[in-house]
Amino acid sequence: MIYLKSEILRIKEEALKNLRELESTEALQELKVKILGKKGSLTAMLRQMGSLSPEERPIMGQVVNEVRTRLEQAWEERSAELDAMALQRRLATERIDITLPGTRISRGHIHPLTQVIEEIEDIFLGMGFQIAEGPEIESDYYNFEALNLPKEHPAREMQDSFYITEEILLRTQTSPVQVRTMEKLHPQLPVKIIAPGKVYRNDDDATHSPMFHQVEGLVVDQGIRMSDLKGILLNFSREMFGESREIRLRPSFFPFTEPSAEVDVSCMLCGGSGCRLCKGTGWIEILGSGMVHPKVLEMGGYNPQAVTGFAFGMGVERIAILKYGIEDMRLLFDNDLRFLQQF
Ligand code: DAH
Questions:
Q1: C-alpha 158 to ligand 1 mean position (Å)
Q2: In this entry, which stretches build a coiled coil (predicted)?
């Protein structure tokens, strides 16, 4: 019995000592099994109690129970200690320093072409225009015929079209919106709209893309004159390219306007003295325009004896290139962030 008791006390002392040294909950659990488990050392002691006399047994039983209770309590304490330490460690490693600057989330922005379209819209809205739209998949009638371009008209070849059927094509210009708008509004006056949108032509090089953007303009009212056209476009050019710009109208031809004019703006790079951009002329072409052809007014439902109008059409990519000095129009469609981030 003496031996048994001292052995039990030895197990206890050793367990308490080990307990203090253990650093993890797992190791703690292992030690618990080794001592108090089914095959544990203390459990083995209990089994040996069979060899004791009936008087000795309860005394030993008490010793074993005391030791077990003491050990279990020690386990609880150490386990709580270890948990607290682990929590401290976690708090230390996961600590957030709220004084550090944040990580910048990079945000996209509006594409330069869209920016230019919105700027054009703003300028014309400021002059009392409204915004109209038309379909990109268009009929031959609106894209050509209603614009005074009958079938077999040679001017149709000015534009290489993407036909879907004989009668349906991707619109080659925003001009069809002129007739669609007049059909919708007549006999209301005035008609004063711009129509921005995508157009399509069978072209692809540094200055042409098969899809590009135009903004069409149309004003119809009683007594509209070419000087109105010039005034509106001068104002537009100055708001777009700077207060000191001048414009000039050069005679040209479009089937849907008569007379027709191409509009040049004084060079935004050299101011008109002549440079590489304007090829020494001092002028840069920005759009086509003219007085709406009587036949077009008529097809739109207006009486050409009673009203007149002007129209114009500009390429948005061209405006963007000139405004920002972009070398190759295709950059506008490449979606290269190094390019786009400059706007
Ligand atoms: N639609 C013409 C083109 O794509 C541009 C144009 C010229 C539009 C004269 C007009 C205009 O409204 O009057 O080349």
A1: 11
A2: 5-32
Cβ neighbourhood burial of 121 (10 Å; 0-12, 13-18, 19+): middle
If you take atom 3 of ligand 1, which residue's CA is the nearest one?
173
Judge whether 180 lies within some domain. Answer: yes
Q: Is residue 100 part of a domain?
A: no
Locate the ligand 1 atom nearest the alpha carbon of residue 314 and give its number: 5
Residue 278 tokens, joined: 């304007």
The two three-digit tokens of residue 284, written as one number:
């840069």
Give the domain extent around 265.
Answer: 112-340
Structure tokens at 163: 């036909």
From first to last of its 343 residues, the chain has per-residue pLDDT tens of: 777 788 888 888 888 888 888 888 888 888 888 888 888 888 887 788 778 888 888 888 888 888 888 888 888 888 888 888 889 988 888 888 888 888 888 888 999 999 999 999 999 999 999 999 999 999 999 999 999 999 888 777 656 899 999 899 999 999 999 999 999 999 999 999 999 999 999 887 777 889 999 999 999 999 999 999 999 999 999 999 999 999 999 999 999 999 999 999 999 989 999 998 899 999 999 999 999 999 999 999 999 999 999 999 999 999 999 999 888 888 999 999 999 999 9
Q: Are residues 44 and 141 in the same domain?
A: no
- Residue 177 maps to which CATH number? 3.30.930.10
For ligand 1, residues with CB inside 6 Å are 173, 175, 216, 254, 257, 288-290, 311-313
- Using the CB atoms, write b or e for 301-338: b if 16+ within 10 Å: ebeeeebbbbbbbbbbbbbbbbbeebeebebbeeeeee
Do residues 27 and 162 both lie within one domain? no
Mutate to test the pocket of ligand 1, among 256, 310, 318 (most ligand atoms within 8 A of CB): 256
Protein residue closest via CA to atom 2 of ligand 1: 313
Evaluated on CA atoms 151, 152, 153, 157, the torsion sign reads positive
258 marked among binding-site residues: yes
Indicate whether 106 belongs to any domain: no
Which of 149, 170, 175, 214 most suits a substitution to test ligand 1, by most atoms within 8 Å of the C-beta?
175
Domain count, the chain: 2
C-alpha of residue 171 to centroid of ligand 1, in Å: 13
